[in-house]
Amino acid sequence: MNQKVMFSSKSNEWETPQDLFDKLNDVFNFTLDPCSTDENYKCKKHYTQKNDGLTKNWANEIVFCNPPYGNNISKWVEKCYKESLNNSIIVMLIPSRTDTKWQHDYIFSKAKAICFIKGRLKFINKLIESSIKSATPAPFPSQIVVFGKVNTEQIEVLKSLGKVFINN
Predict the structure, then answer these.
(1) How far apart are CA 69 and CA 76, in angstroms?
(2) pLDDT by residue (tens digit) across 112-142?
């Protein structure tokens, strides 16, 4: 995998690093992965591109969302915020794009917690390269965004990953 692929439109489905997911899942106990593939889902209950998580109701779920990193990311950010109003807790893993409209409209003003991850995450895209032995660092910084309630234990785990900002 190279940076040309990550910045290209060949595929925008990047699998969450398992160790990061496990660390978050230990304190959030996720019930839904709304934007996965049949190969990389992280929760028993999950949606793929075929059954479109953007069109589903996520009420009362604890959601882990690593959306496709393409042009529709703003729709996923908006969906995550709106679903948090339905008694859901949403944890998003997304690129840190502090210059975007969606970052300003939804994340800075509405997220309960934002963690700017220290260092670069290593992603694998099995749809592009099936023979990958190890992942390479992303060419962009990442952030974890939490919509809905967040507790002290969850904040401590986020702090172990990077710089955390809390909105009251």
Answers:
(1) 10
(2) 999 999 999 987 665 545 544 456 677 889 9
pTM exceeding 0.90: no
Q: How many separate domains does the chain show?
A: 1
Strand ranges for 18-141 from DSSP E: 32-33, 45-46, 62-65, 89-95, 113-117, 122-123, 136-137
Whole-number Cα distances in Å, 118 to 101, 140, 143 = 23, 11, 9
| pLDDT at site 6 | 41
Q: Return the structure tokens found at 132.
A: 């990958």
3-state secondary structure of 64: strand
Residue 5: other Cβ atoms inside 10 A = 15
- The upper half-sphere exposure of residue 34, i.e. CA atoms within 13 Å in the direction of its Cβ, equals 26
Kindly report the CATH number assigned to the domain that includes residue 125.
3.40.50
User: Which residues have CB under 8 Å from 63's CB, separation 6+?
Assistant: 30, 31, 32, 33, 34, 80, 83, 88, 89, 90, 91
Provide the residue range defining the domain that includes 152: 3-166
For residues 97 and 29, give the distance between their C-alpha atoms in angstroms, rounded to a whole number: 27
Q: pLDDT tens digits, residue range 81-118?
A: 999 999 999 999 999 999 999 999 999 999 999 999 99
